C-alpha cells in the first residue's frame, strides 16, 4: 500500500495526498499497463471512486500479458474505480462513458507507440510516430479538462527521448507548461512501469532521467501573445 504525504481535514471529509495527486481530484489515467500505478493511487486514497483507469489493451489481452494485472484490477474494483479497456488515447474524449466528464488530472505515464524491430528510438520515423501518439492524446485530453485541470505526461528526458519535444507539441495544442518535476518511481510504491510490447511486455524498463510535465489550458491572452510573437518572427524571416 502506498504512503500518503499529508492529510488535510476539510469539514468532515479527509483529503489524502500522494505526491502530486489528491483524493479530491477527479483523475483519468490513460494507457495503463498492469494498472499498478492506478492501484497505488487508489490504495493511498483508501478508495477510487474519484478515478477512471483505462488501458489500450482489451481486458483478455491485458490479463495474458501482465502477471499482476488481475490482482491490481480486483484491487481497483473493490475500491470503486471505474475501469475501461480498449481506450484509444486519440479518441477517448468521444467515448460514451467519458465524453460528458471532466477531470482535474489526466495522466499518461511513459507514452510509447510500440517497439520496432527495424527502427531504433533515435530514428526520425519512430520519433514522429511517438509524437503522433502524444499529439493525439493532448488534443483529446484538452477537451476533458476541468477548469484549472492539468494534463500530466511522465517521460524520459535524456536523448533520444528529448527529441519528442513534448512541450512544443503541447503548446501547439493550446496547452501551457505549468511545471516540470523530476519523477522517481520509488515515490509510488507498488508501481511497475512495463515495456508493454513484445515478448518482454511484462518486464520493467529503466526509468533513468525522467520528469512529469504538467500542462493546463493556455489562456486566450497567452495564446494571442504567442501568435503575435510568431508573426513577428515570420516577418523578420521574410
From TrEMBL:
Q: Which organism is it from?
A: Rubroshorea leprosula
Q: Which residues form the signal peptide?
A: none
GO CC, alphabetical: cytoplasm
Q: Which residues form the 25S rRNA (uridine-N(3))-methyltransferase BMT5-like domain?
A: 28-195
Q: List the protein's name.
A: 25S rRNA (uridine-N(3))-methyltransferase BMT5-like domain-containing protein
Q: Name one GO biological process term.
A: rRNA base methylation
The transmembrane residues are: none
The UniProt GO MF terms for this protein read: rRNA (uridine-N3-)-methyltransferase activity
Amino acid at each position: 500500500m502506498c504512503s500518503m504525504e499529508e492529510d488535510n481535514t476539510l469539514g468532515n471529509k479527509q483529503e489524502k495526498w500522494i505526491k502530486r495527486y489528491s483524493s479530491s481530484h477527479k483523475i483519468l489515467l490513460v494507457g495503463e499497463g498492469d494498472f499498478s500505478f492506478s492501484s497505488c493511487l487508489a490504495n493511498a486514497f483508501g478508495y477510487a471512486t474519484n478515478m477512471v483507469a483505462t488501458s489500450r489493451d482489451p481486458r483478455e489481452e491485458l490479463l495474458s500479458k501482465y502477471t499482476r494485472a488481475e490482482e491490481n484490477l480486483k484491487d481497483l474494483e473493490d475500491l470503486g474505480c471505474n475501469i475501461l479497456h480498449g481506450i484509444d488515447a486519440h479518441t477517448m474524449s468521444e467515448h460514451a462513458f467519458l465524453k460528458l466528464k471532466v477531470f482535474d488530472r489526466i495522466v499518461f505515464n511513459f507514452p510509447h507507440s510500440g517497439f520496432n524491430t527495424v527502427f531504433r528510438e533515435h530514428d526520425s520515423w519512430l520519433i514522429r510516430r511517438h509524437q503522433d501518439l502524444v499529439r493525439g492524446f493532448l488534443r483529446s485530453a484538452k477537451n476533458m479538462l476541468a477548469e484549472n485541470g492539468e494534463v500530466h505526461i511522465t517521460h524520459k528526458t535524456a536523448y533520444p527521448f528529448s527529441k519528442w519535444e513534448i512541450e512544443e507539441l503541447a503548446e501547439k495544442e493550446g496547452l501551457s507548461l505549468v511545471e516540470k518535476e523530476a519523477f522517481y518511481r520509488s515515490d509510488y510504491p507498488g508501481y511497475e512501469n512495463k515495456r508493454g510490447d513484445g515478448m518482454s511486455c511484462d518486464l520493467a524498463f529503466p526509468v533513468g532521467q525522467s520528469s512529469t510535465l504538467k500542462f493546463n489550458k493556455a489562456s486566450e491572452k497567452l495564446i494571442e501573445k504567442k501568435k503575435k510573437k510568431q508573426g513577428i518572427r515570420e516577418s523578420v524571416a521574410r
